[in-house]
Specification:
Length: 301
């Protein structure tokens, strides 16, 4: 509930930044650039799954090649009350996973070769529950709205900077100065980006909690995150920054320091793990026997 409330507040902050910058240019420019941003992000919303899967050379995984993996996805989707997503496989040694798709009926879950090799079945189940939580929580829609608002702010800020340099804009004698407009043009996109990234981190916390409750096993996801973050430090991904927020852990390894964390798409690993361990005290899921790493052939042939 707290993460949902935080998301609403952050989206409200993005809207306020958009209105504030738009007011500096006048209503005509405001609506023009907002419409442009909405159009760009609608295209991204409806076609993001195809774009991302092609970028990462993912192939759809037939059930005959990975019946156990498909079985886990089907079980968790049933628990979440959503259709079973399509399952894709990336032949990449980097250990990671992501979900995409504009709604539960068009959802996709993708895993890499690396994640199948280093996680045991219980841990992979926790990761898949996290990804299905993103689908159930409609995080692609939330991210698209946030991206649309942030893009509109950036377009408006660019226009404001241009008019400020050449003496245009809506400022009159009682209005703000050109220098003030240029400062707003510089700071507004940074503020919008920080808020957008804050939304991304908030949704990761929410997916951790939702996925842990869905699987009934917060410690499995906590253990998986520990392994995945260590693996990302040793073998960063060849992914692009544009798709980094989709993955369960930052593909480029953990960021250290307060400033770098502000610009991170993911929350600190240690805080995610701490929250999951605390949640384990309240979640009573199915009993699991301790297990070593499952052979890769059991999950993907």
């Amino acid at each position: 509930m707290m993460n949902q409330f935080k998301t609403v507040l952050l989206l409200g902050a993005l809207s306020a930044i958009l209105v504030g910058v738009g007011a500096s240019l006048g209503p005509n420019a405001f609506w023009l650039f907002t419409a442009l941003a909405v159009a760009m992000n609608l295209v991204s919303y409806f076609f993001s799954d195809r774009i991302v899967l092609r970028m990462h050379r993912a192939r759809e995984l037939p059930e005959a090649e990975a019946p156990r993996l498909h079985g886990i996805v089907a079980e968790l989707a049933g628990r979440a009350g959503i259709p079973k997503p399509r399952v894709f496989f990336m032949d990449d040694p980097h250990a990671n996973a992501f979900a995409t798709g504009r709604d539960p009926k068009h959802a996709v879950v993708a895993v890499t070769r690396g994640i199948v090799e280093i996680l045991d079945e219980r841990e992979l189940r926790g990761v898949l529950a996290h990804e299905l939580a993103h689908v159930a929580n409609r995080d692609i829609l939330v991210a698209s709205v946030a991206a649309g608002l942030a893009t509109a702010v950036s377009h408006l800020a660019n226009a404001l900077a241009f008019t400020g340099m050449f003496g245009g804009g809506s400022q009159d004698e009682e209005g703000g100065s050109p220098a003030g407009g240029l400062a707003l043009a510089l700071l507004a996109p940074i503020g919008a980006t920080l808020v957008q990234l804050g939304i991304s981190r908030s949704r990761e916390y929410l997916a951790d909690e939702t996925g842990a409750r869905l699987a009934g096993d917060p410690l499995a996801l906590a253990g998986a995150l520990e392994k995945l973050h260590r693996a990302a430090e040793q073998l960063p991904s060849a992914a692009t920054p544009a798709t980094a927020s989709l993955f369960i852990v930052n593909p480029f390894g953990a960021l250290t320091g307060g400033l770098s964390r502000l610009f991170s798409t993911h929350p600190p690993a240690e805080e995610r793990i701490r929250r999951l361990r605390a949640l384990a005290q309240t979640v009573r899921g199915p009993a699991f026997e301790p297990a070593g790493a499952a052979p890769r052939s059991r999950l993907v042939r």
